[in-house]
Design brief:
Rossmann fold, single chain, 5-stranded parallel beta sheet, alpha/beta, Arc Repressor Mutant, subunit A, 3-stranded antiparallel beta sheet, elongated, 13 helices
Length: 274
Amino acid sequence: MGADRIQAATEVFSYKWHPVILYAVYELESAGYSEVEATIDGISSKVLSDGLSDLCECGILATTETVEGSGRMVYELTEKGHTLVPVLGVLDAWKRRYEGEQPSVLIVEDESMVAEVLSGSFPDSYDVEHVRTGEQTLKEYTDDTDLLVVDRKLEGMSGDEVAARVSEQYGQGLVLCVSGIEPDDDIFELETDDYVHKPVGEDEIKTRIELLLNRQGLGPAAREYLSLRSKQVALRDAHGDSARMMRGYRDCETRIEELDLSSEQQKTLEPLLP
């Protein structure tokens, strides 16, 4: 990347209020000056006015007159501005992981050796728990669980059902599937955020975990996009170029086209893929 490129890329964050103002306008969707001011604690009128002007000058915000001739202007994010929102989400996830409570990970694996390898992939800064069955998972999983690592092939309740029930009950939990079952067309239906086909090395698992946990601060559309794209990556890893002709791959593509994300926003999310 180079220091010069990093400096240029982070210039918009050099002023501490820029990200706060940007996110306030994003949450409000479009808002007048007073509405933005009301949502940000501790900001002076001059600082807000300068910040809004700077972000408009950078092409991150734009102003629109609410009613022609009224003189009342509202601020809204441009396409360029919208592509920065996932970046803020990743920064938020990073801060929570390293400056807050230990991330909570629940591993569901009935093979002891595999469970040991998976557990060993997490540093001491993680709170890791291991269970052997789907039934135990549903008892141990809570609102505070950050990541579920699940094998599809379990005795009794399958990993697929475990992931589906966790997703239905808790919604925003991240799910990493680590399975000896080769991904196929049914991957589109799985309630997983990423899919790794065994055997898998420790370095690969660590990389997948880091990428996944960076998704925590993202919105639903961005999370779903990354889940669908990760499934496509899993199919390509398993089946090569022919994966693009598979029904599961095409189903993911169709759903991606339905998401409320522009092509520029999608490009911003691509670095979070395996």
